[in-house]
# Entry
Amino acid sequence: MRLGALLASAALIGACSQPAEEHNAIELDPESIVSGSRFLTAETQALQADDFANPGFLWVDRGEALFSEPTENGSACVACHEKGLPGVAATYPAFDTETNSVLNLEGRINQCRVKNQNAPELAYESDPLLSLTAYVAYQSRGALVSVDSSGPSRETYETGRQYFQTRRGQFNLSCQQCHTENWGKRLRGDTLSQGHGNGFPAYRLEWQSMGSLHRRLRDCDTGVRAEPLPYGDPLYIAVELYLAARSNELPLESPAIRR
Amino acid sequence: MASIRLAVPDTATAGEIVEIKALIRHPMESGHRRGSRGEVIERDIITRFECHYADEQVFAADFHPGIAANPLLTFYVRAAQPGELRFEWTDQNGQNWSETATLNVT
# Structure
């Protein structure tokens, strides 16, 4: 009797502590890849296309000013990057041999500040970091995403893929169930996009502000009632890499407008 | 730090009607929202916008809660004489931000 009860409770504990189940891995058909802007209303698309009215440019402008402003004890970004950084954002996240890890654009900017500009890291999602990221991403607007997920980045890519394809939260949904399997269908008052990050940092109407991809990922995790990860978390960087590789060949749109 | 973006044509012919756009970075917090802990987020809005053209007021607007963040205004002015356009925003506490642009009329 007693042994039976013990076994039963052991089985129960076993069931609870089992890792979340990985959903059947499905990848987007490369032929069907479309940017998130395709799912916007004509008015919002027009706002994104208007370089004056697009409020994302408030951050791009600020970033441009910061780019040529020397840090307190160091030089300005423009001192090394005289011609700016055209096309660079399209290759991020990328593997960094120095830290032996994958860095996204935010991480790369902060690395440069510490290493070359004698300045402290900027807080994730802070206004200056968002502005600098927006300005650097803007210089690659129209460039096609070409992120390398092979070689040393492979492991991180696989981690990101697994996160994307694993059910989580009280709703027990994986990212791919909405953004790979059911994109284009309606969810409440909205059309599901394919979940590409090619417009980020983006001005989201819901936020009434510019925000990073990690802020968007946190919203998605919260949406399925899962615990969101902290900004800049290595797992989110892995997801960012997976998403970027998944959207290879899409043009960058930052500063994009999203709902 | 307020950021302001203005779109004013460099030149216009006398009598021409020109499009003016003015965008300012501002949260326009309505005062009706609550934070993640249920606390009321205090109202913080711009309440007045004025545009003067050669010292004459040509456009003004009163803002209320419900205007989106980073408000953009588009309006039209008849280019009568060369002059300075002065744009001024004032918030609920009397703080103001302004910017000028020159319109050359030929």
Q: What stands out?
A: The radius of gyration of chain A is 20 Å. The longest helix of chain A spans residues 2-17. The first strand of chain A starts at residue 94 and ends at 96.
